[in-house]
Amino acid sequence: MERPQIAILGAGIFVRTEYIPRLSEISDLFILKAIWSRTEESARGAVDIAKKFFPNVECKWGDAGLDEITKDSSIAAVIVALAAQIQVDLSLKLLKAGKHVLQEKPAAASIDEVETALSSYNSLSTSLPCRPIWAVAENFRFEPALVEGAKFMADIGDMVNFQIIVEVPMNSSNPYFSTSWRHNFAGGYILDMGVHFVASLRLLAGCEVTAVSATTSHVDTSLPPPDNMSSVIQLENGCSGVLVTVVSAKTYQTFWRIVGLKGTLQIDVENREGKYGYLITLSTPERQTKSPFYPFSGVTEELKTFLGDVSRAILKKDDSFQAEPRISFLEGARDFAVLDAMLESGKKKGALVQVKKF
Ligand SMILES: *[C@@H]1O[C@H](CO)[C@@H](O)[C@H](O)[C@H]1NC(C)=O
Ligand SMILES: *[C@@H]1O[C@H](CO)[C@@H](O)[C@H](O)[C@H]1NC(C)=O
């Protein structure tokens, strides 16, 4: 298979500290042709890091650079990792130019935008010979521990209750604290991070969220509101549970706990020898089973899937090709819709809000 040429739009923290290093580990799957940013300085910063692994990568910036990438027919796919407010517009522009797109989460900045995005994307089938792949990068659906955890769900029987607890100290020591778009984003860090946890819940439960009721508040005024949320979640399978997210915590803690009729599944995030990862514990009346430690690897697995899909789509050249559903824009849209309903419920002091179906 021929290696597809790709470009990256964005030169922020995630591109510098995640995309470039992770891509360097799987550099046999693609050719990195260019990195683009709004300003030359920012593009150069990311290109300098990337050059160690991809000596021929080109530096592009501004409207002219973007135009060159859009018109370059040798570029098959683009990773879009920009401010959430502008990603959908840019992704659609690239899709219309026939490029496959992996866009960083969240899928969109509002429900209206999700709706227009889906209809514009669906209408591409009529204007292009084959509709390019539009993927949203949320990586949790690709974390081996969560995929494995979903298999263990059969061992605990029908779901009775669940808790997902997320405590994060988002303060000025955290590099993501200083990204200005997040401070001007409706839903703030609760939305930006929350889509991951909704993705993991939908993966583990194997069904959709139907309705939510949430209480939100603003504790740390240096953060965008809300930064504290308790949400009761109702699943399609009849089970309810809670998601607690505190972005203004003083300590880190993340775990999933699912109580079933036959036992309990717990997934903890741990740090072992400086590496973050997951540990799964399955408890039944008879025994407790602990999984091996799974270091974080969802970003790499997701990139491999996207690049593999791009290579296969290029070979097929028609619509008979089906991309992996876990990376589809639709999945990202569904996660967004759940968070949107939680934030709306928070504004209505916990009123029950139905989740918009996509
Ligand atoms: C944090 O959220 C919980 C529930 O959503 C609420 O009961 C609590 O009062 C909030 N804390 C602060 C300090 O706002
Ligand atoms: C941010 O939170 C972490 C964890 O509690 C702490 O170690 C660090 O000192 C905090 N930074 C600031 C600037 O408060």
Automatic annotation (TrEMBL):
<dbReference type="InterPro" id="IPR000683">
    <property type="entry name" value="Gfo/Idh/MocA-like_OxRdtase_N"/>
</dbReference>
<dbReference type="GO" id="GO:0000166">
    <property type="term" value="F:nucleotide binding"/>
</dbReference>
<dbReference type="InterPro" id="IPR055170">
    <property type="entry name" value="GFO_IDH_MocA-like_dom"/>
</dbReference>
<feature type="domain" description="Gfo/Idh/MocA-like oxidoreductase N-terminal">
    <location>
        <begin position="6"/>
        <end position="118"/>
    </location>
</feature>
<dbReference type="Pfam" id="PF22725">
    <property type="entry name" value="GFO_IDH_MocA_C3"/>
</dbReference>
<keyword id="KW-0560">Oxidoreductase</keyword>
<dbReference type="GO" id="GO:0005737">
    <property type="term" value="C:cytoplasm"/>
</dbReference>
<dbReference type="GO" id="GO:0102497">
    <property type="term" value="F:scyllo-inositol dehydrogenase (NADP+) activity"/>
</dbReference>
<comment type="similarity">
    <text>Belongs to the Gfo/Idh/MocA family.</text>
</comment>
<dbReference type="Pfam" id="PF01408">
    <property type="entry name" value="GFO_IDH_MocA"/>
</dbReference>
<feature type="domain" description="GFO/IDH/MocA-like oxidoreductase">
    <location>
        <begin position="155"/>
        <end position="265"/>
    </location>
</feature>
<protein>
    <submittedName>
        <fullName>Putative oxidoreductase</fullName>
        <ecNumber>1.1.1.371</ecNumber>
    </submittedName>
</protein>
<dbReference type="GO" id="GO:0006740">
    <property type="term" value="P:NADPH regeneration"/>
</dbReference>
<dbReference type="InterPro" id="IPR036291">
    <property type="entry name" value="NAD(P)-bd_dom_sf"/>
</dbReference>
